[in-house]
Specification:
By secondary structure, the protein is α/β, with parallel strands linked by helices. The chain has helices at about 20-25, 40-50, 70-85, 105-114; strands spanning about 5-10, 30, 60-65, 95-100. Helices cover about 45% and strands about 20% of the residues.
Length: about 110
């Protein structure tokens, strides 16, 4: 993992995320969906990525859209970070930066696909 930021991307926001393919290939991103995946699975995915990063993650960038399930994802990721910190001997603060994908961008992407 080359970057110090882990990108967690809601499934519905992947179409407008920059450099998604490169981030996935480099292990710098994880795609999740709180509507389709179990809470424990999302927590496991996030903790696994943090472990793979070997304490190099300095921040989490969370890409969501304006839906209730995406807002729930913010709490899920926060809880995953707390769980990771309680299991990890090194105690440190990892900030979460929430990036809202604007709904009009989704419409533009859908129009381009047609």
């Amino acid at each position: 993992m080359g970057s110090s930021t882990l990108s967690i991307i809601a499934l519905c926001a992947i179409s407008v995320h920059e450099n998604l393919e490169a981030k996935l290939r480099n292990g710098e991103a994880v795609v999740v969906c709180p509507s389709l995946e179990d809470y424990a699975l999302i927590q496991e995915k996030v903790c696994k990525k943090l472990l793979q990063a070997e304490n190099k993650v300095k921040a989490v960038e969370l890409s969501v859209i304006e839906l209730p399930c995406c807002y729930a994802l913010i709490g899920m990721v926060s809880e995953a970070l707390r769980t990771f910190a309680s299991k990890n001997s090194e105690k440190r603060i990892i900030p979460i930066y929430v990036k809202n994908v604007e709904p009009h961008l989704m419409e533009r992407v859908e129009a381009e696909l047609m």
